[in-house]
Write a structure and sequence with these properties.
Elements lengths: L1 H8 L3 H19 L1 H6 L1 H27 L5 E10 L2 E9 L1 H24 L6 H20 L3 H19 L6 H32 L4 H6 L1
Antiparallel strand pairs: 1-2
Helix pairs in contact: 2-4, 2-6, 4-5, 4-6, 5-6, 6-7, 7-8
Amino acid sequence: MESLESLYSYAWLIPVLPLLGAATVGVGLISYSDATSKLRKPSSVFIVSLIGMAMLMSFGIFWSQWNGHEPYSFMFEWASAGSFNLQMGYTIDHLASLMLVIVTTVAFLVMVYTDGYMAHDPGYVRFYAYLSLFSFSMLGLVLSPNLVQIYVFWELVGMCSYLLIGFWYNRKPAADACQKAFVTNRVGDFGLLLGMLGIFWATGSFEFDIMGER
């Protein structure tokens, strides 16, 4: 039981692990582009190993939720002004644990497939960095306990979609497609923002728990 509790307390590692992979490889590509691009296998193995660790943690949490473990939340105060209070953190319940398994498993399988699919592409390492950043964004979205975090991670998902759609930016169809995706996402994001503000006006909170009570 204690091991399960420690697993929940370290659940923040599930999104952070792919972020670590994306950040490490990304910094390498920016600072030492040629050298990092040549480290194809080490870079891919590093990123796939990290998402694999996140997947194993997700399965452990899902198993405990399936066997009746109560929902878990970790929150800390991020901003406060008068009666307004905004907390950040993560929440794990039955639905979140299921989505963690789905996202990490799909991401792991996609990354394994990518090794062969992108084997002869010069942007092999960059593609892995984008996939890892996309995985971080999706996992952060799944664990978000309030609408503010939902919006932040949704924007990151949109940015990653833009990067992946326009990966071959030197090809006109890909460049045109990512521009269309960018414009479409901005329209949807504006609608999401209006909806969030409307919910806040009606309930006085961005927190899911408080919104449910009101």
